[in-house]
């Protein structure tokens, strides 16, 4: 195998490592039953409760840089410079992809079939059952650990309705999303389908 192919495989393994960390951090720190007050858990529950809240970007950058520094040295020592940096590069690149995708899921309207799938997968976690679908970029580890739930119609609390979801003229679900999302908590406080 030539050097480029080896580095590519190292980068893919790094991406796979992030995929697992994405699941593990979200499930066991974000929704920790043992230590619910851990800093990530506190921030994450706020993300659930407020909907539009995200940890400040500077905080993510600091954690990302520290994590990269801590990981890069042993990776280079074990795998050599090229493979070690390829592994860490793949992991960090996929982490950045995750951050971007997660942010876009919450704040943007439709943006391609994969991202629309990922949003329904993630919003099933947010609004249907927070014990399910901890993966954001893929269902891989949810399938492995038995926490996968196929998205059905997602009931979004009216007060957490995202701007891309709601028609500003009516305050109801936009027709483009009417098959996938309904608002919960109308005047009667009950779930009800979009009126469109
Ligand atoms: Zn989210
Ligand atoms: Zn969560």
Task: Explain how this protein is built.
The chain is mainly α. The chain folds into two domains: 3-150, no CATH class; 153-196, no CATH class. 57% of the residues lie in helices and 5% in strands. It is built from six helices and three strands; from the N terminus they run ααααααβββ. The protein has helices at 3-30, 39-50, 57-79, 81-107, 113-127, 140-145; strands at 154-157, 181-184, 191-192. A three-stranded mixed β-sheet has the order 1-2-3. Strand 2 and strand 3 (191-192) form a beta hairpin. The longest helix is centred in the N-terminal third of the chain and has 28 residues, at 3-30. The chain is elongated, with a radius of gyration of 19 Å. The model is unreliable at 189-196 (pLDDT under 50). Bound molecules: zinc ion (2 copies). Residues 47, 102, 106, 122, 126 line the site of one zinc ion.
């Amino acid at each position: 195998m030539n050097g480029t192919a080896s580095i590519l495989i190292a980068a893919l393994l790094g991406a796979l490592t992030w995929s697992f960390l994405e699941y593990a951090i979200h499930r066991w720190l974000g929704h920790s039953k043992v230590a619910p007050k851990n800093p990530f858990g506190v921030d994450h529950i706020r993300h659930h409760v407020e909907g539009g809240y995200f940890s400040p970007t500077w905080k993510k950058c600091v954690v990302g840089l520290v994590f990269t520094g801590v990981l890069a040295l042993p990776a280079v020592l074990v795998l050599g410079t090229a493979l070690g940096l390829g592994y860490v590069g793949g992991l960090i690149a996929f982490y950045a992809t995750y951050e971007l995708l997660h942010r876009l899921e919450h704040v943007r309207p439709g943006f391609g079939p994969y991202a629309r799938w990922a949003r329904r997968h993630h919003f099933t976690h947010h609004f249907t059952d927070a014990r399910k679908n901890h993966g954001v970029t893929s269902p891989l580890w949810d399938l492995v650990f038995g926490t996968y739930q196929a998205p059905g119609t997602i009931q979004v609390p009216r007060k957490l309705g995202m701007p891309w979801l709601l028609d500003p003229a009516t305050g109801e679900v936009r027709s483009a999303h009417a098959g996938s999302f309904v608002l919960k908590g109308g005047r009667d406080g009950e779930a009800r389908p979009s009126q469109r």
